Amino acid sequence: MARIAFSSLQQDRTDAIELLLARNPHPLAQELAEFHRFNPSFLTAVVAELRWLKRVGRKRTGINSIVEFLRWDRSWEKHSRYSIMNALSALMARVITLFYPDISGMLEFRRSVADRILPIIIHRGKVQPRTESDFRLEGGVRSLRVGDVWTKPPIVIELERIPSLHTLIAFDEAARDVVPLRAIVERAPNPGDPLLVAWKEHFTTQPEVFSLMQRKLRERKPSVFSGKSLGEYVRWSISRLAEEKRTFTLTSRFSSLYNRALVLANPEFDGRCSFAQCRVDLLLGYKLAEKPVNGEPFCRLLREGK
Fold it and tell me: What's the pTM?
């Protein structure tokens, strides 16, 4: 990728995040600078989610969950095949904690190549600039010095009170959405398999999980998608929207089942999701086609014997 001209950025925008990244020659810094240029509200949306979590008493979370939520929550300018590169998440986390120090401690930091890209030091979940002379705290955020000019990061619009899950999806409506899942279990070679029995109990008692997943897929109509990514969106949405009187779960134990159920219940999306053959396919009585058809990017699910 060609390096973004720093001088042109200075002329076009006075955004401390973009200015810091654009003058860094590392490919990931350049990737994030370009993404931020086309989607200037994405990083501030991450900060808004973290501030909301902090207000409601949550202590810590992972950047990937928020990124996956925002990927599906709204449309962003396409930056890669899936719009947002997962490889940028670690760098995003460090950039926003550097410029918005009030979210310090909210994100989990693991050793990453991103630590060598920025002029920062990480200690106990806090990100500090390596040289204080180029940064200063004002109004709760860090400004960046470019020459004799101090430039602030973008303003964060705070989230209002988030509605409850059932404001969006009533239990009765969600129960109708999982009817095809019952048929999938009943057609399986061994409907009494313990994993299928546990999954059936899960979507019967918590139908909102699949309902939200399916509705978002139908709403966005992606040309390609990741079932794991959509699952993360639903997991985060539920943690934000669920009422205190109901406990919702979405464990990795059922992820492959829900991913396949999405395309089996919505065949128009078959061939748009990448699957790796696994035990779940045998449980459901399906297999992956040998190769994609009709120009689709991925192999379809086929009923065994066909």
Answer: 0.82
